[in-house]
Structure formats: C-alpha cells, structure tokens
Amino acid sequence: MKLRILAISMAIFMLIAAGCSNSSSEGAKEKDGGDAKKDTQTIKVAVQPWVGNGPFWIAEEKGIDEKHGIKIETVLFEQDSDMNAAFASDKVDVANLATHTTVRMKANQDLEMKAIIFMDESHDADAILATKDIQSVKDLKGQKVAFEEGATSELLLQQALSEEGMTLEDVETVFMPAAQAGLSMISGDVKTAVTYAPYINEVLDKKEDDGVHLLYTGKNSPGLISDIVVAKTKFFEDNPEAKEQLRAVWDEALQYWRDNEEEGNEIVAKGSGITADELPSILSGLKFYNSEEQAEKVSSGELKKAADNIQKLMLEAGSMKKEVNLDEIFDME
Where is the SsuA/THI5-like domain (predicted)? Predict the structure, then answer.
C-alpha cells in the first residue's frame, strides 16, 4: 500500500515539475522574444475632416496599417489651432499638416520635426471667390475679404495679392472660419471670400447664376497649398521603423483607393463628414502623391521652390519670427 502511495506521489510530482518547466520555458521565450507575438505599435495621427486624409482612413478601415506592423489611430480636430497644439504638446505622434503650418511652427516654436510624405496639393480645391463686379485681383483693393486667419486661405490670398504688388493691407480683412466665409458670400455680407472645398461648391451652386466666380485658385500657384505628414524628430529616433512603415501604408492605401474608387470614396466621405456624391467635384481639384510621384517632385526642385515661396510670403506678412533651413524639415528623398 505504501509503495502504491509512493508511486502515485512520484507521478504527481513529475507532472507538476513538467508543468513548471514548460511554464518557465514559455515565460523565457516571451521574455527573450522567442515565439511570443510582438505587439503592434499604435500611432496616433492628427487629422481634420478634409479629404486629403483619405488614405489614412482607408488604411484604418481595411487593415492596411497592420499589414505593415503598425496600428493607425486617427484623431480628429475641427480647427487648425487645436490640431497644432496637440501636435506641439505630444498629444499625438504624427500630424497631417499644411506645408505652410509646418514651416511656421518650426520658425515660431522651434520644433524639431521631419516631413516624410507629400500627401497632396490643391489646384481648384482652394479658391478666392468673387462677385461679378470683381474681375481681377487688382479689383480687390479696398474690398472686404472674408477668410480664416493663419490658414491656407490666408496664404492663397497673400500669393494672389503679391503677384499684383499688393499686400493684405490693401484689402479689408474679415476673419472667420472657412465654412463661414463661404456663407458670408451667400448672404451677401462680403463680395469676396477665400475658402476651400466643399464650401466652394456650396457657394457656386447657390450664387453662380448671380455672377459669383473663381477669381484665383491653387492652380495659379502649384504647390502653394499642400499637405504633408509630419512627426517630431525624436519620434523617429525612438521608432526608427515608423518612417518607412507610414510611407508603405500611405502608398498601399492610396493605390487601394485608386483601384477601388467607389468603396474608397464611401470611406473617405464618411471621414470627411460629407456624402460620397460630393466627393468627385472636390477630388477633381486635388492631386495626390505616392512615394514615386513625390520623389519626382523633390528631384525636379518643384517642392523646394514652393516651400521657399511659402516661407517668403510668411516672412513678408510677419507671421514667421525667423527664416528656417527648409532642408532640416523635409525628408522625402
């Protein structure tokens, strides 16, 4: 009887020891990174309800981000100022910013950052709208012009005026958000407004029969109104693989949209807060870039020329405290 009990006890001991051994072995594997699954890194990307962010919404929806080892979490902001503040204070990892905003933040806040993707540039998606009695930029002298201060609308107006030897001091500025600028034209409060799609289309749909027209658009100055993907330099130092992962996600998601236009439009419209029917007219005024197309823009010198011009305009307007070395910002070769 004692021998039988001893045998059973030994058997139980061996099973427990084997279990502990396996548990320790698995724990060691996880500790050493053996067979344990590596966690996917979540990257918070600041965006606004603008169709230019479309490929990132598609990447989230279709799981394209996780194919490249990251999980993109888009964080939506309604105003430029709120998004810029979140980026500056590290509430987000990455931000999809206007090129001029990036340059200005570098100059005024001394932020060390890198722009790694040239997302898009506006052709007819940003515009100065005017009534029929204003047929040239020179006619804006002394007129009320509604636009959002510090945003792309202000930059577009500055460029248009500078080409005629004029400045913002030659017009009566009326500051308001871009959506309201369009509404102020519809109501007749101003004769000129600077805004972007879909508000451009809204104004033209209601006032084109009254002679409201496009006076000046992004197409008149290629590259002036553009968007780029930016992160703090330290973020890329701490996450050396993130740069190529983000680029790969952008390229694949953009191609997916190009290959699956109807489905892609539904996803992007939802993210932008508009209907899919509104999207084609907006997209017709935009040009998106993948890595190969971006490289061509860089090598041709077009990107540098546009960035130099942006900096010049902001220095002249006093919205930048100092000139910056643009080569320290752009990492798009």
Answer: 55-262
